[in-house]
Amino acid sequence: MVELILQAVDKQRAKVLACAPSNIAVDNMMERVHEANPKLKIVRIGHPARLLESVQHLCLDALVSSQSDYAKQTNDIRKEINKLNKKVLKCKTKAERKEIWGEYKMLKKDLRSIEQGYINEILSGASVIFCTLTSACDKTLVRYIKSPRLQDNLFDLVVIDECAQSIEPACWIPLRHAKKLVMAGDHK
């Protein structure tokens, strides 16, 4: 599978979504791809607590938070949100709360927009994105694929490793993001 991914990226300039049914299987595949070509831009989608320590620096959360501009922009907005939260506790009328709620919603929308912009930038630059089968429907990935600013965000190739160990409906999840599919696994 590692060789298939590397060949698809190197020779065909394909954008690949690599999946497996378990976090450990995805992390193992990711480690091997990274060892084979450390210069290849790869990203792991998933909760950092569930990932192997060796791939956490390639996790989407780690890559986004390492952006210095991101930290500056979002910290200011988070401070404003915290101030509004404290203000709400001091409000005596419903009208005051409603006004603060409107501000709060705008700030949260701005925060999500900034985060999604950085996420889209990182995912656009990646040649291979790794996730579990169920993480292929993660809202972050789906927003990236459906982003109107980005064109043709379907993956050229979706690879499912250890396919025989997963349940069939889970394998259907990443299929909607693919032009081609390769499934691998022990038939027994």
Write up this protein.
This protein is α/β, with parallel strands linked by helices. The protein folds into two domains: 2-66 and 125-183, 3-Layer(aba) Sandwich (Rossmann fold), CATH 3.40.50; 68-115. 53% of the residues lie in helices and 11% in strands. The protein contains seven helices and five strands, in the order H-E-H-E-H-H-H-E-H-E-H-E. The chain has helices at 2-12, 23-36, 60-65, 68-90, 94-125, 139-146, 168-172; strands at residues 16-20, 42-44, 128-132, 157-160, 181-183. The protein has a five-stranded parallel β-sheet, covered by helices on one side. Helix 7 links the parallel strand 4 and strand 5 (181-183). The two termini are 18 Å apart. The mean pLDDT is 87.
Helicity range? 40-55%
Q: Order of strands side by side in the largest beta sheet?
A: 2-3-1-4-5
Specify the overall morphology.
Answer: elongated
Unreliable segments (pLDDT under 50, ≥5 consecutive)?
none
Q: Which range does the strand content fall in?
A: 5-15%
CATH class of the largest domain: Alpha Beta
CATH fold assignment of the largest domain: Rossmann fold
Q: Characterize the biggest β-sheet.
A: 5 strands, parallel
CATH homologous superfamily title of the largest domain: P-loop containing nucleotide triphosphate hydrolases
Radius of gyration: 20 Å
> What's the number of structural domains?
2
Name of the CATH architecture of the largest domain: 3-Layer(aba) Sandwich
Query: What's the SSE pattern?
Result: HEHEHHHEHEHE
Helix tally equals: 7
Mean pLDDT: 87
Q: Helices and strands: which structural class?
A: alpha/beta
